[in-house]
Request: fold
Amino acid sequence: MVLSALMPLFLISSVDRLSDLNDQLLLLLNSAAGRSWLFDSLVAFFLDNDLAKAGVIGCCFLAAWYGGKSSNSTNARRKILITTLVAAVCVITTTKVLSKTIFLPRPEIQSQKIYRLDGDQLVEMKRMPVRFMLDEESQKSYHALLNGDVETNDLGSFPSDHAGFFIAISLGIWLASRRLGWLALGWTAIVILGGKMISAQHTPLDIAAGAGVAIVELSAIQYVLRKRFNGILERLTSLTLRYSALSSAIVFLVAFEVSSTMIHIRAFLGLLAAMRRHVLLGMG
Amino acid sequence: MKKFVIVIASFGFIFLTSCKVQKEGIVIMTDHSYKATLLANNKIGIGSPDGLLWHKGKLYFADEGGVALESWNRTEGLKKLADASVGFLSPEDLVIDAQDNIFFTDDDAGGLWEYTADGKLREVAGKDKGLISTEGIAMAKDGSLLVGDGEQHEVFRVTRDGNVTEFLGKEAGITKPESMVFDDQGNLYIADNEDNVLYLLDANRKLHRIIDRNEAFSPETIYYSKGSLYITDSHNCKLYVYTPGEELKTIAAFGGQLKNVQGVTVDDQGNIFLSVQSDLKHKVGNIIEISKEETQVAKK
Reply:
């Protein structure tokens, strides 16, 4: 009885402590920004350049795909990697849906004087004293922010879709090949996600939540597909071995899309949605 | 397995309690000397107002979502002056003369409407006189009304007795005269939110494109007060202030539920009032007050 009464208090204090820890960690990582143009430009380069950012992950994926020492081990690896791709699509869908429903602006936005609608009041939010990077692109977006130019995407930073997507792929690679997996996970954690926190685009909590979604969904999908749909996976992997030229072409496309955070597929889906609106529904 | 489920459920609970659902909205003050307050929402009885106007201590709403003309102040609360039963469909913008007669436009029913100081409603001029989809409205010095039409792409002059003449024809190139206001020099500002241009028609009837930044600027409603033009931009979700000879300055940017800023008006103390159509279809609207921080007022 006493325990159940104390539970809400415990949870509230846990949330507060978690939030404080999250802010402190972010400010610690972000303290590296805004001090050296060279360092900031390097961080920004790895954040903005798809080849530098995700090319390594794409390479690890390809290496794991082709790296089996026997046809049995290649088969096993490919089963894991195919399942990983399915999981990655689910993860990015989940993180996108969550970030559109949960309201949490990026820390860089929270550095401004912001009022948020809380019931029937506009309440001033706690300001995050983040540092801005000195490279040209970051300075441009900083000045745009001072001018009030805020993208809708910047208002829902929780959870990080980059964290979800790249951790799902890297973990899948790790399940297929430990050595390549460590490389992919290390690159994701240090280069991709580290850069996101240094530049104050995401808090550690955003990253942890994205990673959480990735781990849970990847584990669940690996379990379900391999338990229930092992026959289909078996057939798919044997097809990739039989039609190796065609499967190589498809894997290249997949690796290409992984390296660009599926931006082209998303653009294609956007085109389909626009076509549906304009042609089928006759809107303008 | 049990432990796994408990851990996942606990994380889910912590995440959900530490974040708010995005029914919320935000106001980002780019001019830090201002603060934002939510003045009113649907709880006071408004629908989803478009035009609003401060006049003699009261706010008047052209409530597009609620299909009504309303007035509000803190002591009297909301008062419905006229509603859809009299024939208008979508009140858009309004002006009030010195005798407290209210004139408003309607982009669905068209026409120019008047709600007189003694509480009578009439259509001054309707669709039959060429006012098909009326948008912006401004009162000229001679008491006639300038009415912009979004379908005819023209600005008409309408006299109190319902005589309609062309004021600015199609050749002026204004696609949608969404909002209009005179400054104290007699210049007429015209906001075209289709072509995204702010025009100025000077006293010599010469039309100038004073702000033209393509997609980066789309004037929705304009209001002139004490030498400055206040502009809302519903495409870019911003409130600007423009002072002739100076750069366009952003006062605030809006996001989430509050991003669709529509009408703007200013009271005698310089407090800015904005109408936000959060969801026109479901009649969800908010009124935001943007005012100077107390320290700024004290400095003044």
Summary: The first strand of chain A starts at residue 102 and ends at 103. The interface with chain B takes residues 11-12, 14-15, 18-19, 100-105, 109, 112-118, 120-122, 124-125, 146-150, 152, 155-156, 158, 205, 209, 212, 216 of chain A (CB under 8 Å).
